[in-house]
Amino acid sequence: MLRSQRWVLPLIYGLSGGIYYWLLFETVRQDFLTVYGFILILFLGYVFVLVHNSDSSFPLLGSSLKPPAVSSFWLHPHTLIVIGLGFRLLAVGALPQLSDDYFRFIWDGRLLAQGINPFLKVPSAYISDPELANTLGLTQSLYDGLNSKNYFTIYPPILQGIFTLGAWIFPHHVMGHIWLMKAFVFLSEGISLWILFRLLKKLALPLSWIGLYALNPLAIIELCGNLHFEALMIMGLLWAIWEFRCNRWLRASIPFAIAVGSKLLPIMLLPLLIKRLGWGKAIVFGLMVGLMTGLMFLPIMDWQTFLHLSESVGLYFQSFEFNASIYYLVRWAGFQLTGYNIIQSAGPVLAIFTILGIGLFAWKERTDQLSRSMMWVFLIYFSFASIVHPWYSLTLVALCVCTPYRFPIVWTMLIPLSYATYRTTDYIEPLWLVGIEYCLLAVVIGWELWQRRLNREQDV
Question: Would you say 123 and 111 are in contact if contact means Cβ atoms under 8 Å apart?
């Protein structure tokens, strides 16, 4: 490294730390220009670190997979992990500014801490009885912060357990409850980085690729900063991939069940295992995951819980929309034909297309790398979904680290444009920004696929 460049990387890391502080502690999501401006600056620093060694450690948009040619303390994989964890630790201390989901986490936790199943009633049913609500610790300020006052909870059992633990330890202290929940996210992120490091080593890939996830600004902001439990799902999936790599497919069912117990989405990945394991082992694997997930639900599962959870999942596909791609095109076509929003019919139809798309991909795909296949399955799902929040893209980032694909990195720089929706309380999406986001993403995906076909490179 040139002498004049030795100070550049530590300066970037230091400035990034300051920007993370101002973004996470001093900025509100209504101030979109400030929020996205800070995020964009963080990405510029992040990309500088990647491109600084792009001809070796970080293949970007179809470049080669050569081993590192330059050794630098500031690009050493251990340094990248430590700095990434340091940024995450800073984020743990902040009250979530870009998301209000944590109000529901605390609400559900306080109900369960009192022995009440949170799946049985919507929040508005409790707040209508002030005496009962006060007894349960369901304050008016907590209720006012909820973004789903008239909907049943949708959070799986592992998350409910974390919510409850926080309510037990901090029954009246909101920030303490948040810190405890963030501790689980931070721990999950640490484990994910450790597993990614081991996967890179096992696959004989450059260890500096760990920086793709360790330093990704959106991962730091959304998971440890805004308290999203995608971190637990990511950890479970990476752990399962590691077990498969070690030919321990039955043991892989444990972390896979943890991923499902954190967010139900990984269930859609099960078809990928048929070619890899054969029908017999794949069915056993699915039954093991189903049994462990069922045991997680057992303490709170009854017929009403099942009905209300099913209702919540149905509403997710039939009532909510945010930052979608194909769905918005279908919705526009529906408006032209019918004159009204066709979400109630379009949502289930697109869900069927998702299932068919995943099934076709599982049938046609090669079986050389599970993380690559999982990445494409998640992309298929997000392409047809009616809701795509910024933190959803982080699963793709974690899965792409051990592959030559880098479009998820680009998406994490584009998807925060969706925060423009929160400029006012009317929550009106600027669809031109959504169009820019997905058009640029499509161009990058097309470029990478074309480059790989042109170079005839095989996935690692």
Answer: no
